[in-house]
Specification:
Number of strands: 21
Helix content: 25-40%
Strand content: 15-25%
Number of helices: 14
Low-confidence stretches: 1-25
Amino acid sequence: MAAAVLRQRAGGVGCVAAGLWQAQSRQRSTFDVAVVGAGIVGLASARELARRYPSLTFAVLEKEQELAHHQSGHNSGVIHSGIYYKPGSLKAKLCVEGAALCYEYCDQKGIPYKQCGKLIVAVEQEEIPRLKALYERGLQNNVPGLKLIGPKEIQAKEPFCRGLMALDSPYTGIVNYKQVAQSYAEDFQEAGGTILTDFEVTNMEMGQESSSENEDGLKHPVVVRSSKGEEIYCRHIVTCGGLYSDRLSEISGCSPEPRIVPFRGDYLVLKPEKCYMVKGNIYPVPNPRFPFLGFHFTPRMDGSVWLGPNAVLAFKREGYKLFDFSTGDFLDAVMYSGLWKLVLRNLSYGLSEIYRAVFLSAQVKQLQKFIPEVTVNDVFRGPSGVRAQALDSDGNLVDDFVFDGGSGDIGSRILHVRNAPSPAATSSLAIAKMIADEVKRRFEL
């Protein structure tokens, strides 16, 4: 695009202090549906359910003091257009639909975003066939505005970028997803929903049938307990637990598969005086032999530019620092056969990622393929995020969204959102509609 598109209303949607969520009355303990997890998918789903079923009562249960604290608050902020995903997959369908809904929602709410576009750039001849295949895939997925461009057009859009050919995606944008998630929470509350923070779910079970003592025992037969001993009662549960989705499934008596293995992504940040070198998103052509997208340039809403990320095994599910460690999380990961099968298939890639995580110059070398002027002196180490990567027992990355439940008294009352990786934030409103449809089908609301 010739110029970035910016939508902003004075004031925007401000961040809401955690205390406001916590201040909600905890006197009510019965709800028709409890949503576990106040990330962007959980909040979007709760919002959709509360708006669709105004006569029912809903609660969101969140273990942290603030909302969207983990994956939703530690991502790159890209509004993806839907290029990469297999045609016909849920990812492809929900991303394209979700991006349109995201832009529309931000316009309605006055949430600032920039439709700054993205170039997927081929820097070697062998990447050009893969780039053309991506273009065809994007067309099949109905991604708007895609076109292949040559070196001169690349430099017209990104003057400091070098490449042989690029896929131009003008529909790609950026936004602050934590701000979007907080807006969802406000909508949910306005629709009558209740948000309980500092409520870490540790148990879900059927309550004792004692209708003579408590009429709610039959109306709301599911008991959800927190790590502090608090209880709420409900008819049905939807879990959107992200990094803990497998554990939530397991404690409810449902299958622990697919398992979650955490991968930390470390970003570099371009120094402010060098941010002029990047106008929009610049991505490499992904190599199908490796599981992640590779180093890219991502402008942020605050004007900064993030570079990366890498992808290394995290030794703690919420381990955002290099030396964060949890014995339980570490053992969960390394004792899972699926992880070892993945590692052995991608050993050279994994070792390269570890090397780049340690040596700044190795990361910059990757970036110089696209912008040769970037030097080690132009960057500093930035934030990290942890991706909840779902793996099956054969070591395959679970690439699509996974929604399932169980059987029996408790399992039949639960819907687990088991795998909602990128582009889940982009797709959140579309995912929420699908979850609400599935809730209606399973629970006959």
